[in-house]
Design goal:
The structure holds 2 protein chains of 2 kinds. Chain A is mainly alpha-helical. Chain A is built from 13 helices and no strands. In chain A, helix 8 (176-213) packs across helix 10 (228-250), helix 9 runs antiparallel to helix 10 (228-250) and helix 10 packs antiparallel against helix 13 (284-312). By secondary structure, chain B is mostly helical. The two termini of chain B are 41 Å apart. Chain B is globular, with a radius of gyration of 25 Å. Classes of the chains: A mainly alpha, B mainly alpha.
């Protein structure tokens, strides 16, 4: 297991390097220039500008700039945010927990919806419940997150006035009150993301359970006289979840995309809204670092999916 | 006597039914199967209606999209403005019709880019063994694990101005958005096509074509591609919905089309600060996106059933 983890991490390294190359190329090809402000400022003499460009190595060949940037990333030197005036890694570490909290709880919510609904629907295919669940799942993943977010704000914040629609990290209350306020403000973003993911996962779970439930070993389990509940929970679900894990891992980039949108709608101070604001402010180091963090998160979740595979399917050996 | 007069028509009917069954073309057969999927059929009708409205609507509803009228600011639906107005008193129906052309157009064009790119990569990988296949699949996997939305935002932000200067504000952004959305969504198609190619190229009819001296290009274009088309059509349909969502997302984040081009996502972006006083402004474009995406997804589902020859319907 430990050796497998190391091997798997080693396989992840080329993808990380590939992603960093893609990122850096995009940025290097772009016409924007971090020294644009200096160039248009009449108080900065041309000689000073040129000296600054040399000092920061902006005129070096792209390969050298890439290598310099990559080694700096490895050393933990992620650059300095032009706009926020603090180091980028500090900025990201401040914001990351909020994002992970919102994404994590929404994924838990999605699982809590998708597993029971998908399994129940597949156990009674083409029943009324199945048809309603399938149609709702279709509606759920056809509703873009930005529209559900707006609908939720409209219903729960404006008409019913139950929930706040701006996410705050500086809640002054203490004790239970603090937790309560947090749950209230996180409810809508988590629900928006969770319902969207839950809807598409429900379809995966249903079709995957339907595939497994027709197999001979399930008939055998029934013939042994096991209760239907045991057959489904112990024999069917575990095998049915294997393809679901793949699909879920493949959807991770989309999950982070959804997180960016929800953070923007509900003004959650996470790394998604940091990305948008730094793009709008032309804050290159922050943009690079946040995009890279998103890429790392995707790879970490793919790794997690691989580990879950092994737990679900003992035939997969960790070599 | 009676028996023989009876026997003749029955045999005749049976023969005619046999002939009728033989005459059914693949297209007609697909249509027969597609009709069984009632939701898909209804969706096709609704989508056709949406497309017709968006394409022909502006001929009938000739209110200009940028006609500013401060006396009718943020007005709700009325006879004069069936979908209400925005904060500058511009007519929302006209803007929705205009935006629909762009949103649906981007969806279709981005789908074409994704399908063509995906089919090319998948076909190349499927036909060539060894290192080319491995390299292309590594590229596909790399693109699959890229954080798409952050990169989309980044690329559009960085390249918007230079393309605007190159091709004019509207066309430049249009080309950029179509290329970028298509460029980040070809991977599922590539994987599908490659899988199809791997199984099809070992089939007897391909071997026969090769034995008759067909070149690789001919084998691919005439024999393998037509047989691999079913799943590609389904994936392409769903791709349109995904591209519409992607475009709306970009516009919603303020990084898609410029403010004077009201796509559906852009309308939502503009409306989101006025939710408490003018909810209609957000609800109409949101509903339009939702309806378009939902119907396209249902059609994709129907096509999946239709084009799968193993499925008994």
């Amino acid at each position: 297991m430990g050796r497998y983890l190391v091997r798997r991490l080693l396989i992840a390294i080329p993808s990380l390097i590939g992603i960093s190359v893609v990122l850096f190329t995009v940025l290097a090809l772009a016409p924007g220039d971090p020294f644009e402000e200096l160039a248009t400022n009449p108080n900065v003499p041309a000689a000073v500008r040129a000296a600054l460009r040399v000092k920061f190595g902006l005129d070096d060949p792209i390969a050298i700039r890439y290598l310099r940037w990559f080694t700096a990333m490895l050393h933990g030197d992620w650059g300095f945010s032009f706009v926020s005036r603090i180091d980028v890694d500090v900025l990201i570490l401040q914001r990351l927990p909020t994002t992970l909290f919102v994404i994590g709880s929404s994924q838990v919510l999605a699982l809590l919806i998708a597993l029971p609904v998908g399994i129940y629907a597949a156990a009674r295919p083409y029943s009324i419940f199945d048809q309603i669940a399938s149609t709702l799942a279709f509606v759920g993943f056809s509703l873009p997150t930005f529209f559900t977010g707006i609908l939720f704000i409209l219903i729960f914040s404006i008409y019913l006035d139950w929930l706040p629609f701006v996410y705050r990290t500086d809640i002054s209350a203490t004790g239970w009150q603090w937790y309560w306020e947090h749950i209230r403000q996180a409810a809508m973003p988590v629900a928006v993301l969770g319902l969207f993911q839950g809807a598409s996962w429900t379809r995966y779970v249903r079709s995957s359970v339907l595939d497994v439930i027709r197999l001979d070993y399930v008939t055998t389990a029934r013939a042994k006289g096991l209760a239907e509940r045991d057959v489904i929970m112990r024999h069917v679900v575990r095998n049915a979840l294997i393809p679901v894990v793949t699909l879920v891992a493949l959807q991770m980039p989309a999950v982070f995309g959804g997180a960016i949108i929800t953070e923007q709608i509900f003004r959650i101070p996470g790394i998604g809204s940091l990305l948008i604001s730094s793009i709008l402010a032309n804050d290159t180091p922050t943009i690079m670092a946040v995009t890279f963090v998103f890429a790392c998160l995707v790879i970490v979740f793919n790794l997690l999916a691989d580990l879950i595979y092994g737990w679900l399917d003992p035939r997969i050996t960790y070599r | 006597m009676a028996g023989s007069t009876h026997a003749l028509p029955t045999a005749d009917v049976a023969a005619r039914a046999e002939a009728a069954r033989k005459r059914v073309s693949p297209g007609l057969e697909s249509w027969r199967r597609f009709r069984r999927h009632r939701l898909a059929l209804a969706s096709a009708a609704i989508l056709a209606l949406i497309i017709l409205t968006v394409v022909l609507g502006p001929l009938w509803w000739q209110v200009p999209i940028n006609d500013i009228d401060f006396t009718a600011r943020l007005a709700g639906p009325s006879w004069q403005h069936p979908f209400g107005t925005d904060d500058l008193g511009q007519d929302l129906l006209a803007r929705l019709l205009y935006g629909g052309r762009i949103s649906l157009g981007v969806g279709l064009a981005a789908m074409l880019v994704a399908v063509v790119a995906g089919t090319t990569v998948g076909a190349l990988a499927g036909m060539s063994r060894g290192s080319v296949d491995a390299a292309l699949m590594w590229l596909t996997d790399l693109f699959l694990s890229l954080p798409q939305l952050p990169l989309l935002l980044l690329i559009i932000y960085l390249f918007r101005d230079s393309l605007k200067a190159l091709a004019g504000p509207e066309a430049g952004v249009y080309v950029l958005i179509v290329a970028v959305i298509g460029g980040f969504r070809w991977m599922p198609v590539a994987r599908l096509v490659r899988a199809q190619f791997l199984s099809l190229r070992e089939k007897e009819f391909v071997e026969a074509a090769r034995a008759l001296g067909a070149s690789t290009t001919r084998v691919v274009v005439h024999h393998i591609l037509p047989n691999a088309l079913g799943p590609v059509i389904v994936a392409g349909t769903i791709e349109v919905a995904a591209a519409i969502i992607a475009e709306s997302t970009l516009s919603f984040l303020g990084l898609g089309f410029p403010p004077d081009i009201p796509t559906w996502g852009r309308l939502l972006y503009d409306a989101k600060d006025y939710l408490d006083i003018a909810p209609h402004w957000a609800l109409f474009p949101g509903a339009a996106i939702f309806l378009a995406v939902l119907t396209i997804n249902f059609i994709g589902d129907g096509l999946r059933d239709t084009l799968d020859p193993r499925k008994v319907m």
